[in-house]
Design goal:
The complex is a heterotetramer of chains A (about 180), B (about 300), C (about 90) and D (about 400).
Chain A: E1 2-9, H1 14-27, E2 31-36, E3 46-54, E4 69-72, E5 91-96, E6 110-116, H2 118-126, H3 132-143, H4 148-159, H5 161-173, E7 175-178
Parallel strand pairs in A: 1-4, 4-5, 5-6
Antiparallel strand pairs in A: 1-3, 2-3, 6-7
Chain C: E1 8-9, E2 24-28, H1 38-42, E3 48-50, E4 56-58, H2 68-72, E5 78-82
Antiparallel strand pairs in C: 2-5, 3-4
Chain D: E1 3-8, H1 9-19, E2 24-25, H2 34-45, E3 52-53, H3 59-71, E4 76-80, H4 82-87, H5 89-97, E5 103-108, H6 122-126, E6 133-136, H7 140-154, E7 163-168, E8 176-181, H8 184-190, E9 208-209, H9 215-247, E10 255-258, E11 265-269, H10 273-286, E12 291-296, E13 298-300, H11 304-311, E14 316-321, H12 332-341, E15 348-353, H13 363-376, E16 386-387
Parallel strand pairs in D: 2-3, 2-4, 4-5, 5-7, 6-7, 11-12, 11-14, 14-15, 15-16
Antiparallel strand pairs in D: 1-8, 6-13, 10-12
Helix pairs in contact in D: 1-2, 1-7, 3-5, 7-9, 10-13, 11-12
The chains are: A alpha/beta (about 180), B alpha/beta (about 300), C alpha+beta (about 90), D alpha/beta (about 400).
Keywords (chain A): Oxidoreductase
Pfam family, one (chain A): POR
Protein name (chain A): 2-oxoacid:acceptor oxidoreductase family protein
């Protein structure tokens, strides 16, 4: 079972993005679970959620404490202590940022880093800076956990055709860097 | 058919012997409403004098000859909304759905559900028999209790003299909901009342209809039982309780009152106002006049 | 007793002997009556009836003796009499 | 063929309700239930359901409207949570005592105060003596399935009682997972249309519904209400089996057990923590601890006999509650179970409480509970309540 935590801000579409992943894996005959963090979601406020993917029924119904993967939709969240809490050694971080790797202050536990500047992609396809669908493309490429064609269909069905194009472009543009994840 | 024909030829659907006080206005109103609506009717009568008088029944007996339920004090209009929804769904809109509630169940704790049902335009007739207080529990104040009234929760003492506030004008508030039909009525003006019940039932087939009927209460008002109708007439003639209707947004005074009697003529018959001095009576007169001016304005201009 | 599963009344009408409440009874003077119908329309307990000839009469089965009919009669054709008096009039 | 889809718990409730073809739906939005009524409103707007949607102004009116609809012979549905349930208490109690069958979805939530909008079962357990049947479910599939089973149990002529499907607010209401949505025809075959047999408002059969009732007869009504609750215990098992035969999903009836066959110690769980509890049991078993799990599904009627049977031979047990019993210093499942098994002081048992106000009941919490129980299993007598509380940051 893969345990994933998502971080973003209210208005970036964290919940809908995660639900789209769950819909896709379920459609693919597999199992997924998403629990949004139950805060008061307001535009701009930090939001997070817990995603699990498995090839059998997911019985556990709790928050994710030791994620293997982090999907971070906003690089201004990197300094928050909760963001990297419990990340497993050698874990994967999929991050929306325009910064270079040198500018980022990442913990040493990160094994794989996937970087995408989602803003220009979102702006060019959906005319608004909502990074979630582009980041789904980055997530799919970086983790290989979701059937990519099916995910794109679900993105198009849920968010509209321009979002499929955004995800597609992100899939091509995401930079995947192996950091080793030294303990 | 004249109103006398209607009343003499229609069946009384209420138990012949019910436990309402001698000279009770509520009993009179209930009987007339059901005589006019007939047997194809479902009625909800929440806690209050009429429910307390046994019209819902006792043990395994029915208090009426038609289906009746005692809803909660505060949910008559919403419970009947469910009944209405179901009857519409069954295609049986010929069935009259009626609520008959006192002023407490209407204007106070029942007002939220009443207001919402009116806003939704539920197909029903809601009749409030207003005896200006919670009579079934011993005459406590309600929001339709008139200013100055002595009640068991607004007693006359050394420093306080009855209710401090003016009444809430429920019929006007209901009219402002945009209900299909809203009217005030008085058993003292029987022809007018019968016609309004008929109109209310007709309107309930396409929207929410509301009747606010003054209900003389010999027990709470401490008046002579035989004077109930006389008081109901005086309430109208003094403009204490003016008679009007609002149909499709048009305001009309159904019983014009060009030469009103002073409100003290009405009040004189009621011990609940006995303690009032000249100043207080003048204040009441002033309120009545103002209310009447507003009504005149509405009937003149919103027509 | 599992006759009914929830409280319902359908055994018949619940009727009180409200005639026993009466201390005064209304007595109608048929000669004075002008058949205006006020008594019938104002009677709270529907104890005054109109017959085929549009004549009015009082039923004492459930009349509570409130006196409204006597009070409202424009011709004073109804008198309230103490129970037991004037029975034969 | 049934449809498989990722659904939130709330949407599972909406789909479950829609499949039961209610005549009237009235619900008022409240966190975390709101999307149940929103989804049903969308179904209605799209013409996918024929139910009348009554857009009420409060939960009090929501319960009143559905009460009127059931009294007029219909099948009705509503949903609520916490303060909404508290507001509807008056008609809620009346619904059951008039023996009017219906199903209500309850996205359970902590009661204020302190101010909170998050998960907790205090709302549901506070009304466990209001005469309704209450089932607590573990996952979203069970929400949908129990709404369908719920009508079948509720509308049984020997039972005629309303039923609450209680599911953890947020932990299920907002959780998305795989749910199988049965075909309408399959549900139709399982659940016949409701035919009201009593307490009907209809001019064709005039009756007074709820006339004044003297005490000696009222006692009889209460007695028959209690008898119906007991009959429901058998009906729950019967409907569960029938459902399992037709849809292939067996929930175990009034309780479900896991690894209880050779269990020396047992934990009792209620609601969504159960899945986590199963994981904890698996982990403990790997360490050689002979632990089993009892999932309390029905809190009303309380399955006394089945609980007793399941705990027979168990040396020690602990219940985990997501709510409290004021005055007992324990959780309600503890109180109920202790009353069911009797001889409380001669065995080892304790109450664990956690997950209030949206707090998580983690795998570590339940594992800790099992380990405590394993240590104490030979020490009968009074035990302090174990609180799953974390240091305040």
């Amino acid at each position: 079972m893969k345990e994933i935590r998502l971080h973003g801000r209210g208005g970036q579409g964290v919940v809908k993005a995660a639900q789209t992943i769950v819909s896709t894996v379920v459609d693919d005959g597999s199992y997924g679970q998403f629990i949004p963090f139950f805060g008061v979601e307001r535009k701009g406020s930090p939001v997070y959620g817990f995603l699990r993917l498995n090839d059998e029924d997911i019985r556990i119904k709790t928050q994710v404490y030791y994620p293997e993967i982090l999907l971070i939709l906003d690089d201004t969240l990197l300094d928050m202590p909760q963001t990297f809490a419990g990340l497993q050694e050698g874990g994967t971080v999929v991050l929306n940022t325009s910064k270079s790797i040198e500018e980022l202050n990442l913990p040493k536990t990160v094994g794989t880093l996937a970087l995408l500047d989602a803003e220009p992609i979102a702006l060019s396809h959906i005319k608004r800076n909502i990074p979630n669908t582009a980041m789904l493309g980055a997530f799919a490429k970086a983790t290989g956990l979701v059937n990519w064609d099916k995910l794109k269909d679900h993105i198009a069905a849920t968010f509209g055709e321009p979002n499929r194009l955004a995800a597609d472009e992100a899939y091509e543009k995401v930079r995947i860097i192996n950091l080793g994840g030294a303990a | 058919m004249s109103y006398l024909d209607v009343l003499s030829e229609s069946k009384d659907l209420v138990t012949p012997g019910m436990s309402a006080c001698q000279g009770c206005g509520g009993e009179l109103i209930l009987r007339k409403v059901l005589q006019i609506s007939g047997e194809n009717t479902i009625i909800g009568i929440p806690p209050g004098c009429m429910a307390g008088a046994g019209v819902v029944g006792w043990n395994f007996s029915n208090g009426l000859k038609i289906p009746v339920h005692i809803p909660l004090l505060d949910n008559t209009a919403s419970l009947l909304s469910g009944v209405t929804a179901m009857y519409q769904k069954m295609g049986r809109e010929d069935v009259n759905i009626i609520g008959l509630a006192g002023d407490g169940a209407t204007a106070d704790c029942g007002f939220q559900s009443l207001s919402a049902a009116a806003e939704r335009g539920e197909h029903m007739l809601y009749v409030c028999y207003d005896n200006e207080g919670y009579m079934n529990t011993g005459f406590q104040r309600s929001s339709t209790t008139f200013k100055g009234s002595q009640t068991s929760t607004t007693p006359v003492g050394k420093v306080k003299k009855g209710k401090k506030e003016n009444r809430k004008n429920i019929p006007m508030i209901m009219a402002m909901h945009g209900a299909a039909y809203v009217a005030t009525a008085s058993p003292g003006h029987m022809k007018d009342m019968v016609e309004k019940i008929e109109k209310g039932i007709a309107a309930s087939k396409h929207g929410f209809a509301y009747l606010h009927i003054i209900s003389p209460c010999p027990t709470g008002w401490v008046s002579k039982p035989e004077c109930g109708i006389d008081l109901a007439k005086k309430a109208v003639k003094s403009n204490y309780f003016p008679l009007f209707e609002v149909e499709e947004g048009v305001w009309r005074r159904t019983v014009p009152n060009p030469k009103p009697i002073p409100v003290t003529d009405f009040i004189a018959g009621l011990r609940k106002f006995k303690h009032l001095g000249e100043d207080e009576l003048a204040e009441i007169q002033e309120y009545v006049d103002k209310n009447n001016e507003l009504l005149e304005k509405l009937t003149r201009e919103v027509s | 007793m599992r006759k009914y599963i929830s409280p319902i009344g359908k055994e018949g009408l619940y009727v009180l002997d409200t005639a026993s409440w009466r201390t005064y009874r209304p007595v109608m003077d048929k000669e004075a009556c002008i058949e205006c119908g006020a008594c019938m329309s104002f009677c709270p307990v529907n104890s005054i009836y109109r017959d085929q000839e549009k004549k009015y009469y009082i039923s004492y089965d459930y009349c509570k003796g409130c006196g409204i009919c006597a009070n409202e009669c424009p011709k004073d054709a109804i008198t309230m009499m103490l129970e037991g008096e004037g029975e034969n009039e | 063929m049934s449809k498989i889809q990722a659904l939130t718990g709330n949407y599972s409730a909406s789909y479950g309700a829609a499949l039961c073809k209610p005549d009237v739906i009235a619900a008022y939005p409240i966190t975390p239930q709101s999307s149940v009524v929103e989804k049903l409103a969308q179904f209605s707007a799209d013409g996918e359901i024929s139910a009348s949607m009554v857009e009420v102004e409060s939960e009090h009116s929501a319960m009143s409207v559905v009460q009127g609809a059931v009294m007029a012979g219909g099948r009705a549905f509503t949903a609520t949570s916490a303060q909404g349930l508290a507001l509807m208490y008056e008609p809620y109690f009346r619904m059951s005592t008039l023996r009017l069958p219906m199903v209500m979805a309850l996205a359970t939530r902590e009661m204020t105060s302190p101010e909170t909008v998050w998960s907790g079962q205090q709302d549901a357990v506070s009304v466990r003596d209001a005469g309704w049947m209450q089932v607590f479910v573990e996952n979203n599939q069970e929400i949908l399935d129990m709404i369908i089973q719920g009508y079948k149990i509720a509308e049984d002529p020997n039972i005629l009682l309303p039923l609450n499907v209680c599911y953890d607010g947020f932990y299920l209401s907002h959780l998305s997972e795989r749910v199988e949505i049965p075909e309408q025809a399959e549900v139709d075959a399982f659940l016949p249309p409701y035919k009201s047999r009593h307490a009907i408002l209809d001019p064709k059969e005039p009756m007074a519904v709820d006339p004044l009732t003297p005490g000696n007869i009222l006692i009889e009504y209460r007695k028959s209400h209690l008898e119906a609750m007991q009959e429901a215990l058998a009906k729950i098992e019967e409907v569960n089996k029938e459902f399992a035969d037709q849809f292939g999903r067996n929930y175990g009836g009034a309780i479900d057990t896991y690894c209880m066959d050779d269990a020396e110690i047992a934990i009792l769980t209620i609601g969504s923590m159960t899945g986590t509890g199963r994981e904890a049991v698996d982990e403990a078993r790997k360490k050689g601890i002979k632990v089993g799990l009892i999932k309390v599904r029905f809190l009303r009627p309380f399955p006394v006999e089945r609980i007793r049977e399941a705990l027979k031979g168990v040396k020690a047990w602990a219940s985990i509650d997501r709510s409290v019993v004021f005055g007992w210093n324990s959780g309600p499942v503890f109180m109920e179970t202790r009353a069911a098994v009797g001889n409380a002081d001669s065995t080892c048992n304790f109450s664990a409480i956690g997950g209030l106000g949206g707090a998580d009941i983690s795998l570590d919490d339940i594992t800790g509970c099992i380990e405590t129980l394993d240590k104490l299993k030979t020490e009968p007598g009074k035990k302090d309540t174990l609180w799953f509380s974390k240091p305040v940051e």
